[in-house]
Design brief:
Layout: H1 2-17, E1 21-27, H2 33-44, E2 47-50, H3 51-60, H4 67-75, H5 82-96, E3 100-104, H6 110-119, E4 125-133, H7 136-148, H8 158-181, E5 185-189, H9 194-206
Parallel strand pairs: 1-3, 1-4, 2-3, 4-5
Helix pairs in contact: 2-9, 3-4, 3-5, 5-6
Bound molecules: cytidine-5'-monophosphate and magnesium ion.
Catalytic activity: dCMP + ATP = dCDP + ADP; CMP + ATP = CDP + ADP; UMP + ATP = UDP + ADP
Pfam family, one: ADK
GO biological process, one term: pyrimidine nucleotide biosynthetic process
Length: 212
Amino acid sequence: MFTRLLNGIRSLAMSSTIKPDVVFVLGAPGAGKGTQCTNIVKEFGFIHLSAGDLLREERNKEGSEYGELIEDNIKHGRIVPVEITCSLIEKAMKKSGSSKFLIDGFPRNQDNLDGWNRQMAANVNLLFVLFFDCPQEVCVSRCLERGAAGSGRSDDNPESLKKRFDTYMNDSVPIIQYYEQQNLVKKVDAGGTPDEVFEAVKAIFQNISPSR
Ligand code: C5P
Ligand code: MG
């Protein structure tokens, strides 16, 4: 009886110490989330999981049952149902074996947030939400430049961009506000050059104390 109790306590303690650290990275399309995540990975050893990249990868998989649904949503700047996105994130986290993740472009709407809270929130340690705050004109011109430079993305064109911005304003901004109310948002002015923005990002990451 006593041994069983002790084992129970031990496994509870273990499961709480192995919770991975998570930083959500949010901001408008073209705010520089991906660019800065690459920098953070190099300097601070996080694993970068971009929800958009994971969805594009799944869409491109031969025989994927969700390929068409994902592409239809991406082209129209709409958000894919969370069951798909959250499962891709969970799978990628497990596969990496790491304990520090940047989850970029997620949660993007209420459905994303609810699904995460149902499926994942209790199993991770959310450090904070990194929010790249960038004027819309700057974001639009960055995405159009990216498209012109051959990003190959089906949504880096003026028509899709307009829809992506509508989705951002209507669906994603309220999620950032939700985390702001919980004092979890660290905001970075993202209108400058990548190096300028990274200086501000570095200051944030140098000051965090990971959970282990
Ligand atoms: O973040 P990124 O710009 O790469 O996202 C591209 C598209 O992927 C979004 O416009 C949306 O259609 C889809 N996406 C999604 N759910 C997320 C992140 C991205 O449906 N959480
Ligand atoms: Mg991105």
